[in-house]
Predict the structure of Zinc carboxypeptidase family protein.
Amino acid sequence: MNPIHISSTFDAGAIDVVSVADPQDIQLNIRRDNASDFAQWFYFCLHGAAGQPVRLNFMNAGQSAYPKGWAGYRVACSEDHQNWFRLDTDFDGEVMSVAFTPASNRVYLAYFEPYSHERHLDLIGSAGASEHVTLERLGSTLDGRDVTLLQITDAASTTPQAQKKKVWLIARQHPGETMAEWFVEGFLERLLDESDPVARVLLDQCVFYVVPNMNPDGAVRGNLRTNAAGANLNREWAAPSQETSPEVYAVRQKMLEVGVDLSLDAHGDEGMPYNFVVGTEGTPGWGPRRQALEEAFKTAWLAASPDFQTTHGYPRGGREEANMTLATNWIGQLFDCLAFTIEMPFKDNADLPDLQVGWNGERAKRLGASVLQPVLAVLAQLRS
Ligand SMILES: [Zn+2]
């Protein structure tokens, strides 16, 4: 019999192995981000356990960044590194456990279906082949990777350039939220589909600025929430620095240069089993205009996709002061524009659950494609 072994030295791999001596008590610790205390993301390969019942115990789950994320959580698992399904877990408040019998001697487990750096490069490559796309390297990450922007419009359109709405979509400020880049992939596939009437109108009347991965270093390092320097990029927008948050610095500079009429920032939420958005209520410039835009956008998205909902979400900010270091608040305030943080679940959409796969890459892609409809619905009202 093969000895049981766990490896994680690959793109986005992350786990600390405590003990593999007893197949019924494989002890693991969820690894922290490389330069911060956030710990939630894991991704590893279990070898040598084909046909053998195993129990994996994540010993420190109760001390992770979002312990509430383990209630009702199901692990993403793949036997072929292509198709991911879910496994039930137990969580006693401290240890999160998964018991199953692998079919093969090489089975992958991850917090969520991964989105690899190679796929990220392929996405940019295939989108960049379109005549509508201009690629721009905005800057370097701390590890020397590229911060890549896709500028997308129909250059032959009759709409004067100055009248075109500037629509931004950024994703993976929090690198472990891989569903965010799956969302971008679905968005781009539809936007570049020459047969799609919504995409054709949008390309005629908008310039899209898309950053598929704001945090490639954190993604490759297997971090949940921070970049190589331990910076939580979605707390850096008020004052980004070249030293610790060059990714935000570069994207922010480009926004200041070209402007923003609509901003979408894609994320994942550990606890809530729903897709929802968070707007800019609570920012100083919040008022009836932005509120009406938000409502119109949400209404149109509800009509476009049953995977989107507005019943469940974060508690409303009301008159509380918004955190102006968040991308959405900073952008919405500075450009007085419609801006949303999009949250997708790590678990599943409880309104439309899929017991086999949970929320996954393919479903995030469909949601990303569906968001073109609400963009179209509010297009004429985006500028005051
Ligand atoms: Zn996030």
